[in-house]
Structures are given as C-alpha cells and as structure tokens.
Design a protein that fits this description.
The chain has two domains: 234 residues, PPM-type phosphatase domain (Phosphatase 2c, domain 1, 4-Layer Sandwich), CATH 3.60.40.10; 77 residues, no CATH class. The protein is built from ten helices and 14 strands. A five-stranded antiparallel β-sheet has the order 1-10-9-6-7. A hairpin with a 4-residue loop joins strand 11 and strand 12.
Length: 389
C-alpha cells in the first residue's frame, strides 16, 4: 500500500508555546496533545511520539501490538513524571494510525484522549476514533449535540490521557481503506475551531496532502486559533479497492410511552333518556377522562435536575412546575448544594434541565460530581486532566 502524507503544526493565535507533537513517516502517523505546566506538556507529547516511533521499528503486526506500544508510551511518561517534580502530573492525548500488514488494505487506529482520526471518503467525513472527554459523555447520553460540544465551556476536560496513571485503557480500531481515501489525524485545536462540514470542504478542495494540512491549520487560526493545532493528512494512493461499510451513528434515544385514553362506560339508569343524549355524555366523559389520564402520564413522565427546599441538588420526577395537580416529586436527593456547583452547571440546575429517564439524569449528576472532584483536586495541587495544548 502506497501512502502520501502531509503534516502541519502551529502554536495558534493565543498560546505562547506549542505542546503538540506529531510523527509522519513510514507507515506510522501520530498526533499528541500535551498537558501540564512548566513545559511539561511539551515533554509528555514528545515522549509519546518518540516511544511510538522507536517501538515501530520492531514491527507492528496487529492491533494488539499497537495497543501495547501506546501502553509503553504511557509507562514512559508516568515514570518521567515521578522522576522530576517539575513534570509531575504531565500527560498527553494520542491518536496513532498504522498500516496493518497483509493482503487486505487496512489500517489500525489507537486513541487515548480527545485527539481524533477521521476517514474522508466520497465527500463524507466520518470519525474513526471516539473521544475520551467530558463533553463526549454528554453527547453519548444525548444531553448535548456534537455541534454543542465544540463550544461547551468544559470541552477541554479529558477523561483519559497518557501519563496520568500507571496504566491506561487504549481504544484500538481497524478500518478498511481503498484508493482515494484520505485519513486525517488532528489535535482538538482543529475540531474546536472548525466544524466537520468545513473540515470536509477543505479536504475536498486540496489534492496535495501537505497543502491540505496547511490549509486546515490556517482555517483554525482564522477562526480564533485559541489552541495549538496539529494536522496530519494521509492519502491512500495505490490502486486498491476494498469497499467499506461504515456503521451507522448509534443515536438511539429513550422514548417515553404514553397509554391511550381509557373509555369508562356510564352506569345504566332507569331514567328514560334518549339514545343520542346517552351517546353524547358517554363520549364527553370518555374525552375528559382520557385527557386526565394523558395529562397525568405527561405530568409524571420525564425527570429534571432542581433544588429541594434545603437547597440540595436533586433529581425530580415529573415536569418543572407541575402539570395541573400532578406535582413533581423527589426521585433522588444528593449531598450537593448550590454553592458546590460551577457557574455553567448551576445554570443547568436553576433552569431545570430535563432528561428522558432517571438513568440519564443520574449519569449527568455523576459527571457533575466528577467535575467537582477534579476541580477540588486541582485546587489543592493534585493532577488535573484539563488539556493545555
């Protein structure tokens, strides 16, 4: 399989140093986005790339080999952070792509953090990797959209990174490729500034991969350049054909079912009334009871986050403010108060953010509690996983 590639990295329009690192040579391509103060982020990302580049010389036989290599990079960064107090808490994201040896044209992608690998085919851009981030978990739960995640105030919180812990879970994906496919590896400096639609437009406009990489970085800087941006573009150039069926987006949503109207027949009476009048009153009673039942089901369906009378954060069952005489009730009360919440999350509670199920609401509160824990440990000087480069 013959590959053509281009790469570009830039400090951006705001940052004073570039904590990204990349490798684009042979059949291994890597983008790493470092984090940590006092240039520790630069050390972490560079160490990740160096470890991967050195390890690939012994050969990458299959996806498990790539996973082991990324885990070795994690060990190297973690050990270095223990040896030098100035580098304590340093870490990095990584997305790495390599060719799988064999007759079938395939690549493997390893991912930790929120740097990404995409495939661009026939004008369509699809992610291969999946972010390990706070906002990605919100997207998975259907709480926000992918587009909303791009501008979310906590979009830079990663839930997994190299060097933070002694061990790390590495996601590895395989992807069939064919002639004309274009693969894109990038740091979050690109996707935070440029929409998927605009990325696809630039990928389609530039035939040369180096020109394409430079154009993507330029668009990110034009749109604000608030972070370092690194882009690697890899083209599948040989005349090979292995069609691929990309899986559909898993966007299942939980649906609240509502029973239909209940028809209650009136009691028989000895009073002589006309058949038409009987039919009229029967229909009216049925309609009224049906409306009551439907409103009752609606009033008790759904969950939202709000405060109790004691200012504790709680999951409520029902609708904010109630419906008719169907008032919401407390489903789960937490130990959190309004004073514990960051401003953006407090706004969600004050405005009674709604959820389709108690499970979704509980998962949201679990993420909130994790954010508070991370913020607390950061304040006292423990490890933080907020990306800085």
């Amino acid at each position: 399989m013959r590959l053509k590639h281009g790469a570009c990295t830039d400090v951006g329009m705001v940052r004073v140093s570039n904590e990204d690192a990349f490798s684009a040579e042979g059949e291994l391509f890597v983008v790493a986005d470092g984090m940590g103060g006092h240039n520790a982020g630069e050390v972490a990302s560079a160490l990740a790339v160096t470890t991967l580049r050195s390890g690939v010389r012994s050969g990458l036989r299959d996806p498990s080999t790539l996973r082991e290599l990324v885990q070795q990079a994690n060990t190297a960064i973690y050990t270095a952070s223990l040896d030098d107090s100035a580098q304590a808490g340093m870490g990095t994201t990584v997305t790495a792509m390599a060719v799988i040896p064999g007759e079938e044209p395939r690549v493997m992608v390893a991912n930790v953090g929120d740097s990404r690998t995409y495939i661009f085919r026939d004008g369509r851009l699809d992610p291969i990797s999946v972010d390990h981030s706070y906002v990605q978990e919100l997207v998975n739960e259907g709480i926000i959209t992918r587009e909303e995640a791009r501008t979310h105030p906590r979009r830079n919180i990663v839930t997994r990174a190299l060097g933070i812990d002694r061990t790390v879970m590495v996601d590895v994906f395989t992807q069939d490729v064919r002639t004309g496919d274009r693969l894109l590896l990038c740091s979050d400096g690109l996707v935070d500034e440029v929409s998927d639609a605009d990325i696809a437009r630039v990928l389609a406009q530039h035939r040369d991969p180096q020109e394409c990489a430079e154009a993507l970085v330029m668009v990110a800087n034009t749109n604000g350049g608030r972070d370092n941006t690194t882009v690697v573009v890899v083209d599948i150039a040989d005349d090979i054909s292995a069609p691929v069926d990309l899986p559909p987006d898993d966007n299942d949503t939980e649906e609240v079912t509502r029973p239909g109207a209940v028809l209650v027949a009136p009691e028989r009476t000895k009073r002589r009334i006309s058949f038409g009048m009987t039919l009229f009153w029967s229909a009216l009673v049925a309609i009224v009871l049906g409306v009551v039942v439907i409103m009752g089901v609606y009033g008790r369906s759904g969950y939202f986050i709000g405060f109790t009378e004691d200012d504790n954060v709680a999951i409520w069952r029902g609708r904010p403010g109630g419906v008719l005489w169907f008032n919401p009730t407390v489903d789960t009360e937490t130990g959190l108060t309004g004073d514990d919440l960051p401003a953006d999350i407090l706004r969600d509670v004050v405005t009674n953010r709604e959820f389709g199920s108690s499970i979704s609401a509980r998962k949201y509160l679990a993420l909130v509690e994790q954010v508070i824990v991370d913020a607390t440990t950061t304040t006292v000087g423990t490890t933080t996983t907020t990306t800085g480069g």
